[in-house]
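Why does residue order matter? Because the sequence determines the fold. Keep that principle in mind as you read this record.
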Amino acid sequence: MENKLLRILLYFTLIVVSLTLFFWGIFTAKSFLAPLTVAALLTMVVLPVSKWLEKKSISRGLAAFFSTALILSFFVVIIGIVAWQVKNFTNEWPQIKERIDPKIEQLQAFVEDKTGISPQEQKETIFGPQQSQSVEESNNSESTTGESAQNHSSKEQEQSSATGLDGSTVKSIGEYAISFFSVFGNFILTFIYVFFFLLYRKKFTTSLMKMAPDNQQKKTKATISEIILISQNYLSGRLLLILFLAILYTTGLSISGIEQALLISVLAAVLSLMPYVGNMLGFGLAVAMAFVSGSGLNGVIGVSVTFGVAQFVESYILEPYVVGDKVNINPVFTIIVVVLGGAVWGVIGMLIAIPALGMLKVVFDRIPSLQPLGYLFGGEDIGDDQPGFFDKVIGWTKDKLTF
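Structure:
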């Protein structure tokens, strides 16, 4: 009995130490692994395009180049649209702030009237004493430090004119430049990886084949082909689903009179990768923008109708036919991997966590020894086989439309 407990404790310790070292390793190697992982996922998305071009008697090198250029152009357009929307939001922020401040003051007065908590105490409760004090000081800096600023302004102007730029400005410019070139370099490196993955994909497949025993070559080849096919269909379907949702959200929010509808729609569509939580976050952003833009109750109703229709279309029309049910992931593990990806790799980790989990589930389902993990990561199994209301409506519609 004691030996069994010691063995269980040893296995548990080894698992904890191994997981700790694993996540510490991928966290430390983020600058190397993140572009490589993103490139592998994007390669799966554009692989059908490259194969189609090769069937048109185009060489593999040119097909890989055109496919990489296509996915690069797509992301450049998306980044340009988001940057344009963010710029517009920044330019309109003073007007938005003017509309927000009276509502915040009304809310603070309402809370004070009902609870007796002063606005200053509310700020300290939300932001903390130090941050609240710093915000208060920044708001009143002009009235409390006017004379001292005038006394020092001449000296600062002389120093800045003598050196051109002060030390803090030069340091900030340097930090921004380093960050920009780091992000830009990783961005370009990712698509270089995509090009070479497409170009040498046969070599990668052959190397995996050589690792398998001779009597397992055909089975290994069939397994690899099935994994690649299901994975690329899943990733391509998810990308198309995000595009469809962005279009639906943009149309509905624009009709509802919500400002920055395109920016909110793109964010909500990307957040839809996270089940339940992502949809609630996207809906919260849209409702907040409805109040900020002055749309009032009509805007909130429009947002609610838009997200309701979009969720119905996503769940019962787009997802079954665009994504399919071959890779159905458990919502619990979806949320876990998103949180874990954010803790390890930040925003990039959150975005690639779910596609990576989907591909892992495909691999686990095709390897007998790992099928229990594939089942664990799979969709909900709550013992309720009865169809829901919307399932009955969809089934009735299909029966009536079938001739």
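Residues 25 and 301 are 48 Å apart (CA to CA).
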